[in-house]
Amino acid sequence: MKPVIALVGRPNVGKSTLFNRLTGSREALVADEPGLTRDRKYGVGKVGDKPYLVVDTGGLTGEQEGLEGLVAEQSLLAIREADVVLFLVDGRDGLTPADQTIATQLRRYGKTLFLVVNKTEGLNTAVISAEFYRLGLGAAYAIASAHGQGVQQLMEAVLAALPEPPEDDEDDAARGIKIAVVGRPNVGKSTLVNRMLGEERVLAFDQPGTTRDSIYIPFERKQRQYTLIDTAGVRRRGKVTEVIEKFSVIKTMQAVEDAHVAILVLDAQQGIADQDTSLLGFVLETGRALVIAVNKWDGLPLDQRSRIKQELERKFPFLNFAKIHFISALRGTRVNDLFSSVDKAYASASKHLSTPQLTRILEDAIADHQPPLVHGRRIKLRYAHQGGHNPPLIIIHGNQTESVPGAYRRYLENTFRDALKLEGTPVRIEFKGGENPFKDRKNVLTPRQVEKRKRLMRHNKK
Fold it and tell me: What CATH number belongs to 355-461?
């Protein structure tokens, strides 16, 4: 396992900025507003041949009730997980009573601890750092995380204190199936993530919007690697007024694009809203494999359950490829069934398809239902091959392909999905016109000709 470095400190001391610097990314939300990071956020970094895992935490304020208490609990969980703790303080604010309280708490854990004085650009670092020696945490490392000043020297000291990484250690966060859990605010996404993980890993609080960022959590289940992505709830655009919440929506969209499979969480008690449809449209637009989880199902009266199912059929008639699960994330009812659907959706989305197989399905589809006439001429579709994965992209070559109507495209998409037994993933069709690309190549047969020759040979043998 990679060693874990936890970043802790008061709100707005620059933890997320340092997180982005250490991971070489822009994954953590950064803005001039305290309290942006509420959950633990994980990232992978590497200096030389030494990889590590960085945990960005919510700011510790000393408050122990409500949401602030949950944030503090998450930060303390990160400290327990960590091999090294970087305690950040603000060089411009100077030493505060809250810093002293946090330092007292950190000493109790007995972790390898580094005191990091941030935001020291343009200041006399020796003078600024001297004040923090009163915390009794040893040498202070003066940095400016926004500009990268002093970060290299800090990391050299940190890495020297870390255990040697195992040989051939792979990037765990990049392995396995990435699952984005998406939905409107307060539909139970974080509760579902915690249930799937089997631990309280992200905040689950009865208040909309408690997850503002997208949290990547790698884990293993039945010898298979996964990465769960808990995303911020997406509201209707007219209601997204705060700049920070707009950032969160962007993070959710990026998480969907980065995932292999999206689990769309719906609230059975609230019914299906327009925003559910909009979010579903975005998932389909990205082409991600899809599983639908209708949450808060336990305890619903039979008439309300029937109404929800009818609403699903009416509003999502095009989702015949996606598996729908009726679950209770809070009680764990049927949550484990989601993994089977995720595995099948991922396998379908990444399936390799041969050209002869696709061409044969195309020929059978044309035999059952001919393309329409355009200006008195029949559209001719000759052969098909695979052009990409996640979602499966099928490229069909022929004449007048620019005139293929949408209805016939959808017919082909459904035909390919059924024939290939693809579950949980959309199928995309791309048409290419022009001359036969094989006509000027002597002694080279098209895939369709190869298949016909094979059929003829089998017939002659009989």
Answer: 3.30.300.20
Q: Residue 139: count other Cβ atoms within 10 Å of its Cβ.
A: 10
292: three-class secondary structure by DSSP: strand
Q: Is the pLDDT of residue 207 over 50?
A: no
Domain coordinates in residue numbering, the chain: 4-161, 175-349, 355-461
Tokens (6 digits) for 305: 């359950």
DSSP lists the bridge partners of residue 380 as: 399
Q: Which tens digit of pLDDT belongs to each residue from 24-73?
A: 765 544 444 444 444 456 667 777 777 787 888 777 765 554 434 545 66
CA-CA-CA-CA dihedral for 64, 65, 67, 73, to nearest 10 = 40
User: What tokens were used for 19?
Assistant: 């997180």
Indicate the pairing of strand 261-267 with strand 224-230. unpaired
Looking at per-residue pLDDT, the higher value among 453 and 228 belongs to 228
175-349: in CATH 3.40.50.300: yes
Same fold: 4-161 with 175-349: yes
Per the listing, tokens 């980065």 go with 258
State both tokens at 288: 């991600």
Residue found under tokens 């994330």: 329
Listed residue (394, 398, 433, 431) closest to 415, CA to CA: 394
Please name the residues in contact with 112: beta carbons below 8 A apart, sequence gap of 6 or more. Answer: 83, 84, 85, 161
**Of 362, 369, 377, 374, whose CA–CA distance to 431 is shortest?**
362
Fold classification of 4-161 is Rossmann fold (3.40.50)
Say which residue the tokens 């859990």 belong to.
181
Burial call 222-245: b when 16+ CB within 10 Å, e when fewer: eeebbbbbbbbbbbeeeeeeeeeb
